[in-house]
Amino acid sequence: MFVKQKSSGHLIEVLNIQDLYDPSLDSFEGRLNIGEDLPDSEQFSKSDTIFPSGEALPKCWIDPHYRDSELKH
């Protein structure tokens, strides 16, 4: 799966997709998709990441408390 880095506009290949889905993690492992050589993997911040279409990542992937307001009576 690929996502886009907001700050640079470069595509990032997500190496562990479960890290991207996990709302308790602020970052995920990936590598920039630039040029012909594969760069080393690194950690990328979810807050600087969007889908290639320009849409934001789902809130349930970023915020572990996204449904807390539903628990309040």
What's the topology here?
Layout: E1 2-5, E2 11-14, H1 17-21, E3 27-32, E4 42-45, E5 49-50, H2 59-62, H3 68-71
Antiparallel strand pairs: 1-2, 1-5, 2-3, 3-4
Describe the structure in your own words.
The structure is a single chain. This protein is an alpha+beta fold and 73 residues long. The chain has one domain. It is built from three helices and five strands. The chain has a five-stranded antiparallel sheet. A hairpin with a 5-residue loop joins strand 1 (2-5) and strand 2 (11-14). The chain is elongated. The model has no long low-confidence stretch (mean pLDDT 92).
The strand line-up of the biggest sheet is 4-3-2-1-5
Rounded to an integer, what's the Rg over CA atoms? Answer: 14 Å
Write the H/E string, N to C: EEHEEEHH
Strand count, sense and barrel status of the largest sheet are: 5 strands, antiparallel
Secondary structural class: alpha+beta
Helix content class: 10-25%
Summarize the structure.
By secondary structure, the protein is of the alpha+beta class.
Features:
73 residues, alpha+beta, 18% helix, 27% strand
